Amino acid sequence: AWRPVSVEGPGGRERFGPLTMGTIRVYYTSVTGSRQVKQKQAEVTRILDINKTKYELIDVSISEHLLQEMRAKAGNPNAVPPQIFNGDDYCGDFEMLYEATENEEVWKFLKMASIDKPAREEITV
């Protein structure tokens, strides 16, 4: 469901081609000593997988440029992974996604049209 994004050079050019607008992007880190960060990152991808959401993982440990880009887009100079975006639109962090999941508002959180939401059968007893 995901494709890693790599960069080359200080210009931040992606080797795998341009990202499409409207793509869910999860900024994460593959290098962390924090078990809490690892757990949050795993939970984000689990929630997206359960909701059959296509997403791309962007590893901020590859380049300081990617970390700064994530923080600038999130509007928080101290933001830490995981951070979730729809294209370049900031959706939120792990806690915000978790809250949206609890309220059954994942699609709203991800800023995805309800038409994209998988059909859900209602069973009346």
UniProtKB/TrEMBL annotation:
Question: Entry's InterPro entries?
Answer: Glut_rich_SH3-bd, SH3BGR, Thioredoxin-like_sf
What is the similarity comment for this entry?
Belongs to the SH3BGR family.
Species this protein is from: Chelydra serpentina (Snapping turtle)
User: What Gene3D superfamilies has UniProt attached to this entry?
Assistant: Glutaredoxin
Q: Name one GO cellular component term.
A: cytoplasm
Q: What is this protein called?
A: SH3 domain-binding glutamic acid-rich-like protein 3
Write down the superkingdom of origin: Eukaryota
